[in-house]
Write a structure and sequence with these properties.
single chain, about 425 residues, alpha/beta, 5-stranded parallel beta sheet, about 20% strand
Length: about 425
């Protein structure tokens, strides 16, 4: 039984290991190091606690790499990657279960989308995985093996080899574990385009999904105002990563979401992550504003106590303005750039049926815009499939689901068992 596993997330490694243990032959199609979003989280917040080791690892995984940890102890994300994910990935590679390739397409070998096989199910036809092999790696390998031949080849031949090589392999089952981070949604309502976003989205001030984390990692020198739109997991990591920047008194931060409460889904589904990523930043910025208000009240009291002729010589204290502005129940409907002013301008609107109970329209000026409203399903990879194509299994396991890793893998194994035990063909 040959099974293609798309992606290199925790889910991919765990399900491949389980399939191998049951006698199957998994192939992980992987174009980067294992870990996915965990790597970004580890880089920005190395002290982030994922939970007890026993909850975020599997028994078979621990045995395969000889993990020696107190299973009741909480694992830091950096330790989890270094002591579990990376060794597990290397173990699977050593077994020949990893193909360092990017999958271009998955299809049926011969069946059209609406075609059926008389007396059999569509599962009778295999899945064909078309993948892209890294030409540089292949060329370097052949250079080491046959240096004389490459010395005889001209530059034009070598350059033609660098265009890339495609290959295919056929499988009984395909399991897609990717998190669909390829195409982020836009900043408008429901992930649609806001007015003018299409023409401005490639500008140097707008970043989507993982681009946001990369931009924060590069530093935010000379950035005074940031607008964060959406409240996905990347937004929570971004908020925490901005904590240093927010300590600058000149910084101003806008948070825009359509829900009634910021990050309420994260707070509900993964309270531990909310407490580590979101709560500290909100608490700090709110306390900072309270301290500024107390300072202002003290300065005002002193200013009022002055004699009238003295007050005329002393400037009246300036009332503080909150540096964190939260806009809940709002959507971004328009994006603009002015000829005579730097930065971008967001138009926010809230309908009368949301929690504010009235229609509101306002404009925000900002230096940079960070967008995390989710992602499009990756439909480009899959062609000629029916909606319930037997043998194609989706397994989107996010960071918030790590504690249920074994049950998620077991669910996939149950689906595989049903496929191969049910008399259909």
């Amino acid at each position: 039984m040959k099974i293609a596993v798309l992606g290199s997330s925790v889910a991919a490694l765990e399900v491949a290991l389980k399939i191998s243990d049951l006698g199957g032959h998994p192939i992980i199609f992987n174009r980067s190091q294992a870990g996915g979003l965990l790597k970004s989280l580890a880089k920005l917040h190395p002290e982030f606690q994922l939970g007890p080791w026993k909850n975020i690892t599997s028994e078979i995984g621990r045995k395969s790499i000889g993990l020696d940890k107190d299973l009741d102890q909480c694992a830091l994300v950096t330790d989890y990657l270094a002591d579990y994910i990376e060794p597990l990935f290397l173990h699977l590679r050593s077994l020949g279960f990893v193909k360092d390739s990017y999958v271009n397409q998955v299809s049926k070998r011969f069946l059209n989308k609406n075609e059926e096989i008389e007396g059999k199910s569509r599962f009778h036809d295999l899945f064909r995985v078309l993948y892209h092999r890294d030409p540089e790696e292949s060329i370097n390998s052949q250079k080491e093996t046959n240096p004389e031949i490459f010395d005889q080849l001209g530059d034009s031949v070598i350059q033609s080899l660098k265009k890339g090589v495609e290959a295919f392999e056929d499988f009984d089952v395909v399991i897609d574990t990717r998190s669909n981070l390829k195409k982020p949604l836009n900043m408008g309502p429901g992930g649609a385009l806001a007015l003018n976003e299409y023409f401005l989205k490639d500008s140097e001030e707008i970043f989507y999904s993982r681009e946001v984390l990369e931009e924060v990692g590069r530093g935010l020198k000379d950035t005074k105002t940031i607008s964060l739109i959406g409240e996905g997991y990347t937004s929570a990591i971004t908020l925490w990563a901005l904590s240093g920047w927010l300590k600058e008194k000149s910084s101003e931060f806008h948070f825009v979401c359509s829900s009634k409460e910021p990050f309420y889904k994260l707070k509900e589904k993964n309270p531990a992550a909310y407490e580590q990523l979101v709560a500290p930043v909100l608490n700090f910025i709110n306390q900072d504003f309270k301290d500024e208000c107390l300072k202002f009240e003290s300065q005002m009291s002193e200013w009022r106590s002055l004699e009238e002729y003295e007050r005329a010589k002393v400037s009246k204290p300036v009332e503080p303005v909150p540096r964190l502005k939260v806009f809940t129940g709002f959507e971004v409907t328009s994006l603009d750039r002015l000829m005579d002013r730097k930065g971008l301008f967001l138009t926010l609107e809230s309908p009368d049926y949301r929690h504010l109970n009235r229609e509101i329209l306002m404009t925000l000026a900002t230096d940079k815009i960070f967008v995390d409203k989710g992602h499009y399903p990756d439909n480009e990879t899959f062609v000629n499939f029916q909606d319930d194509e037997k043998g194609l299994i989706k397994m989107n396991l996010g960071l918030r689901d790590l504690g249920a890793i074994e049950s998620e893998v077991e669910s996939v194994i149950n689906k595989l068992t049903e496929l191969f035990t049910k008399v259909e063909d």
